[in-house]
Specification:
heterodimer; A: MetI-like fold; two-stranded antiparallel sheet; globular; B: Dipeptide-binding Protein, domain 1; four-stranded antiparallel beta sheet; 21 helices
């Protein structure tokens, strides 16, 4: 087991650096010039010669005149930067945001926390609903109740999140007046402790409802499909033939085996929502999350911020895949990764 | 007896006046700030409160918060956008000039002024920020300024060759001066300048808050300098962290404005401000009447719902006609207990030509294009009834415009929708041929051509044909249009694909691109760091918008014929008209401050000339609408008077007061 994990970690590191080089190269292909962005405001207040001199000096000091590989090595922290210091990602310097005018690491924390809370809560609720619902559908496959739920999930699956968001704002905020249209806390509130948590959750409720609603269809169908596949296996027939109770057949024999493909889907889904954030939800409900931050950084060509976020996502994804593989051993005793 | 009566009357009069003064004073003192309002903003605050020291393009919400929390300036702007002395701060002011034309602005500030933490505000507080901004340490930290070019000793101070700034003087605890060079170190002329009072705007900052303990400003006779009693020096190592901390503080900022920053909750995108009891008042002595202001981030798609549910109470400067109508419906049908105020936008949308490329180089052609568009209908449609059309480079809020209404009505061409006139102008411009060189038949719907010289055809080969030794140029505009732009969409419908355009024999080719790319093509250089060669003139029509944040009307260098300036991105219309260039320069650099009559005369000439040769065709000027709750009164925004200024004059009267 240890050997396997060690081997996977070595692979993970290699993949991380290959991806980082690719990402860095791709973002450097996009036409942009951070020195120009900084110098442009002075264009009209400096004489052309003086402006050009300062612009070139800034490019030099930012290391922009160096070849791509050298810049990559500096960015990653393999090589000293123009000041002679090792100040790359490996040393904990994730770059500098030209639009926020501060270190990337200082910007990412708050949106990341918001996104994690939003998605963690909505994921737990979604799974709490979809797993029993999917099992119920599989067990009652092709009966009226299953057909109704399937039709509902098709509709839910087809509706864009944006539309659901707007619709739910109208229902819950404008019409019923029980939830706020957006934001993250009561304006001007000075709550602390439980009251603050309650207030935050109240404001997060509508986005969570929308996320849960839009997530229901996909996961219900995944669980249903996995369960139906398992329920048609010979060992399930054998279990039933042995006279085991239906509950034992479903939850001990079938569900345990169906969990393998389901857990892969859950992990993939969680990684995507945690890393990418929920751009549409965050925008619709004016929430400060990573999806919005990423979108804003792309729009403002703030590539050091974009790159830092990309590398963070890469790391989370790689670790997530490793954890998924390891979790197989817990879910399915037949899987032996140390052999 | 008569004498006694007179004395008695005099005493009575003095008594009454005293009583009135006491009553007025006590009334003013009695104006107690109460209540709270929630303001919605579409721009997410960055939380950078360094007075734009590190960026030339400050975030709008950050800027509003800075105005609300920190307006301790010697010079500010009034409702009309004009520079005025801040009488709550300035006790005495003097402007003197020397033989070289350099101007010195000397201020004596009032005693008893305080920061929100109780620290006294003295002359050194007004010098400190500029001393930091222009210093070598400031340069190393990336301060965005070129002011060192116009202040005596600024160039050496910026390079760290001297540690004092000759042009800034600390005269005593409450007196200081700043000098501006007539001719700067960069060779530019800075004086005389009609708006030169703006040069004298100095901001008071708390030295301990921004730079740390022990800092003060001294002057040994050569110029002011920053010094530290704890042995620290003006270097990034010694002040960098403190400046950064102050720049991004989320609470407890030491400022001297009407409000204090109580909390900036980045997680919730929410800013809470509370009234500053130490505030001296704005330039008219006005203090805030609303105790608490909360600024929250809104989303464009849901903002009307947020207003409807009371999530925000003030939504300022709504430009979108559909949103305006929806918001007013909420008031009319009683969904919200609010009112609205409206005002003309200080700016306008337009399309401009590259007046040296293709057919756009001919004045008659440009005028013909203006006649092919029904601008009144365009403005009506685009603004959904909340806007109109202007006929020159102005907005209706300008004093100059209002003082010139009659003359402009008489002299300006309104370029009304008139396809027949457009055809007439095209013919007079020489667009009288078909592609094969035969005579053009009006109404044929074919593309018109004009015989041009090789010089006139330069860089426009794609739209020219050779017939023997003749070069024929088509009546084609090559339009650079930014993506996702609703003005462009309407221009396509009403102008580019308009029946009148085709009928007149004109073609407008739309090329959709990103906005930075459009600007690069317009400036003919890579001004936005995209990379690539934009030096070859390619497009001759661009649609944009412009605005004035204050009342400064300065078009200097915008129509320059100086090759160096043109190469540096000035004169983006490439309209090389000596008269227009001269007027644009003389209007501000040829008029002494205060000489309004001369200024107005030049302004009128400039607008008339601009309207005649038409480097830009104005399309629309919005009417902005602001929704505000009936729990406040006396709230009125204006073109140069946004919510961050207007809120000071509002009184909180409680819910359902109206």
């Amino acid at each position: 087991m240890k050997k396997y994990i060690l081997k996977r970690i070595v692979y993970l590191i290699i993949v991380f650096f290959v991806v980082s080089l690719m990402m860095y190269a791709i973002y450097n292909l996009i036409p942009s010039d951070p020195a120009m962005v900084q110098m442009e405001p002075l264009r009209k207040s400096l004489k052309p010669d003086e402006w050009q001199r300062q612009y070139q000096a800034l490019r030099e000091s930012m290391g922009l005149n160096a070849p791509l590989l050298q810049r990559y090595a500096r960015w990653m922290g393999f090589m000293p930067d123009v000041s002679g210091k090792f100040e790359g990602m490996l040393q904990g310097n994730f770059g500098y945001s030209i639009s926020y005018k501060r270190d990337v690491v200082d910007i990412m924390g708050t949106p990341m926390l918001n996104t994690i809370i939003l998605n963690l809560v909505s994921t737990i609720i979604t799974l709490a609903i979809t797993i029993p619902l999917g099992i119920y559908c599989a067990v009652h496959a092709r009966k009226t109740s299953d057909n109704v739920i399937q039709a509902g999930t098709v509709v839910g699956y087809s509706l864009p999140t944006y539309l659901v968001g707007i619709l739910f704002i109208f229902i819950f905020a404008v019409w019923l007046k029980i939830l706020p249209t957006g934001g993250a806390k009561t304006p001007g509130s000075t709550y602390t402790g439980i009251a603050e948590f309650g207030d935050r959750m109240y404001y997060m409720m509508l986005p969570i409802i929308v996320l849960v609603f839009t997530g229901l269809a996909g996961m219900t169908r995944t669980v249903r499909a996995a369960m139906m596949d398992t329920l048609s296996q010979d060992y399930i027939r054998t279990a039933r033939a042995k006279g085991l109770k239906e509950k034992v057949v479903i939850y001990s024999h079938a569900w345990r085996n169906a969990l393998l493909p389901v857990s892969t889907s859950i992990m993939g889904w969680m990684i995507s929502v945690f890393t990418g954030g929920s751009l549409v939800i965050e925008t619709t409900f004016a929430l400060n999350g990573t999806g919005r931050l990423y979108w804003s950084a792309l729009n403002t060509t703030d590539y050091e911020l974009v790159l830092a976020m990309q590398m963070f996502y890469t790391l989370v994804s790689l670790i997530g895949v490793l954890l998924t593989d390891l979790s197989y051993t817990l879910v399915d005793p037949r899987v032996r990764i140390d052999k | 007896m008569k004498m006694h009566k007179r004395i008695l009357s005099l005493l009575l009069a003095i008594g009454m006046l005293t009583a009135m003064a006491v009553t007025l004073t006590s009334c003013k003192e009695k104006r107690k700030a109460e209540g709270q309002v929630i303001i919605g903003t579409g721009t997410e605050a960055n939380g950078d409160w360094a007075y734009s020291a590190f960026t030339s393009n400050p975030n709008a919400t950050d800027q509003d918060v800075m105005t609300l929390t920190d307006d301790c300036l010697t010079v500010t702007t009034n409702e009309g956008g004009d520079y005025v002395l801040n009488d709550s701060i300035v006790k005495n002011y003097e402007r003197t000039t020397d033989a070289d034309g350099n101007a010195t602005y000397t201020f004596e500030i009032k005693k008893g002024l305080k920061f929100n933490n109780g620290d006294p505000i003295k002359a050194e507080n007004f010098l400190a920020w500029k001393l930091f901004l222009l210093s070598a340490a400031g340069k190393e930290m990336g301060t965005v300024t070129a002011e060192y070019n116009m202040i005596p000793g600024g160039a050496d101070y910026r390079e760290g060759k001297v540690d004092y700034l000759e042009g800034l003087r600390l005269l005593d605890d409450y007196k200081f001066s700043t000098t501006v060079l007539a001719k700067g170190y960069d060779g530019n002329s800075y004086l005389p300048y009609y708006y030169d009072l703006g040069y004298a705007a100095m901001r008071a900052v708390n030295l301990t808050y921004w730079f740390g303990e022990g800092w003060s400003v001294k002057d040994d006779g050569k110029g002011a300098y920053l010094t530290n009693s704890n042995g620290k020096s003006l270097t990034v190592a010694d002040i960098g962290d403190t400046v950064k901390e102050a720049q991004f503080a989320t609470k407890d900022r030491v400022t001297a404005g009407p409000y204090n920053l109580v909390d900036f909750d980045k997680s919730a995108n929410q800013i809470t401000l509370e009234v500053n009891e130490n505030y001296a008042g704005d330039f008219q002595g006005q203090k805030p009447g609303i105790k608490k202001i909360i600024i929250v981030k809104t989303e464009d798609d849901t903002v009307i719902d947020t207003i409807a549910t009371g999530g925000i109470q003030i939504y300022s400067g709504i430009a979108d006609g559909a949103q305006v109508n929806a918001a007013i419906d909420l008031i009319d049908n009683g969904t919200i207990d609010s009112s609205y105020c409206q005002y003309d936008r200080a700016g306008f949308g337009y399309f401009q030509f590259a007046c040296d490329l293709g057919p756009a180089q001919f004045v008659e052609f440009r005028q013909a294009i203006a006649h092919l568009l029904d601008r009144t209908e365009f403005a009506k449609t685009f603004c959904a009834g909340w806007g109109g059309v202007v006929h020159g480079p102005y907005c209706t809020a300008f004093t100059m415009y209002n003082d010139s209404k009659d003359i402009l009505a008489e002299k300006l061409n309104t370029y009304s929708y008139d396809p027949a006139k457009a055809v007439e102008l095209l013919k007079s411009a020489g667009f009288v041929y078909n592609k094969d060189g035969s005579d053009y038949v009006d109404g044929s719907g074919e593309l018109r051509y004009k015989e041009v010289t090789a010089e006139q055809a330069l860089n426009y080969d794609n739209f020219c044909v050779k017939k023997g030794d003749k070069i024929l140029m088509s009546a084609t505009l090559n339009w650079a249009s930014s993506e996702g732009n609703s003005v462009s969409d309407l221009l396509v419908t009403m102008l580019a694909n308009g029946a009148a355009t085709k009928e007149a024999g004109v073609e407008i080719k739309q090329n959709v691109m990103t906005f930075p790319e459009l600007l690069n093509y317009m400036y003919r250089q890579d001004a936005y760091g995209i990379g690539g060669d934009y030096s070859v003139p390619t497009y001759n029509m661009f649609n944009l918008a412009t605005g004035w944040s204050g009342g400064v009307y300065d078009f200097s260098f915008e129509f320059t014929t100086d090759e160096n300036y043109i190469a540096d991105g000035y004169n983006s219309t490439h309209c090389y008209d000596e008269q227009l260039d001269k007027l644009s320069m003389d209007m501000v650099y040829g008029v002494e401050p205060g000489d309004y009559a001369t200024y107005l005369d030049k302004w009128q000439q400039f607008v008339i000339r601009y309207n005649e040769i038409l480097p830009r065709v104005p399309l629309y000027s919005n009417i902005y609408v602001t929704i505000y709750p009936n729990s406040i009164t006396n709230y009125q925004e204006g073109p140069f008077w946004s919510y961050d200024r207007a809120i000071l004059y509002a009184d909180y009267v409680g819910e359902s007061a109206k």
